[in-house]
Amino acid sequence: MRYELSQSFYFEAAHTLRRKIEVEPSLRIHGHTYIAEVTLAGEPDPDSGMLVDLAHLRGHIETLRLALDHRFLDEVAEIGPATLENLCAFIWRAMEVHHAQQLDCVEVRREASGDTCRLRR
């Protein structure tokens, strides 16, 4: 049987965007509340009964959250243009270092605007 285990976190961050529509508002520095969810999938360890120790997962997520929270995302070179797609990819790369075999999905949402992006294996 395949299990999925998800952990969510939120962060507040600002950015600008270069767009072809709504150009002026997007070029101004503006911020969002982001909610990200990391999903691991696989078989539980037969000895522990756990897919992953949640304390380890939470620790990795907290390190990532601190790198994003209250930041100007345009200055985080590893993200590139601060789109939902690039945020998903950035989070994926950060989590893949610790959970390469189990990482299954990264989702980033902006609930205020109803926008969601998912990156799946």
Structure characterization notes:
With about 120 residues, this protein is α+β, with helices and mostly antiparallel strands. The protein has one domain (about 5-120): Tetrahydropterin Synthase, Chain A (2-Layer Sandwich), CATH 3.30.479.10. Helix content is about 30%, strand content about 35%. The chain contains 3 helices and 5 strands; from the N terminus they run βαβαβαββ. The chain has helices at about 25, 55-70, 85-100, and strands at about 5-15, 30-40, 70, 105-110, 115-120. Strands 3-1-2-4-5 form a 5-stranded mixed beta sheet. The protein is elongated, with a radius of gyration of 16 Å. The model has no long low-confidence stretch (mean pLDDT about 95).
**What's the arrangement of strands in the largest beta sheet?**
3-1-2-4-5
Structural class: alpha+beta
Number of helices: 3
Beta-strand content bin = 25-35%
- How does CATH name the architecture? 2-Layer Sandwich
Compute the CA-based radius of gyration: 16 Å
Q: What is CATH's topology name?
A: Tetrahydropterin Synthase, Chain A
Q: Which CATH class is shown?
A: Alpha Beta
Low-confidence region ranges? none
The biggest beta sheet is recorded as: 5 strands, mixed
How many DSSP E strands?
5
Average pLDDT confidence is 94
N-to-C CA distance: 18 Å
Topology:
Elements: E1 3-15, H1 23-27, E2 30-42, H2 54-68, E3 71-72, H3 84-99, E4 103-110, E5 115-120
Parallel strand pairs: 1-3
Antiparallel strand pairs: 1-2, 2-4, 4-5
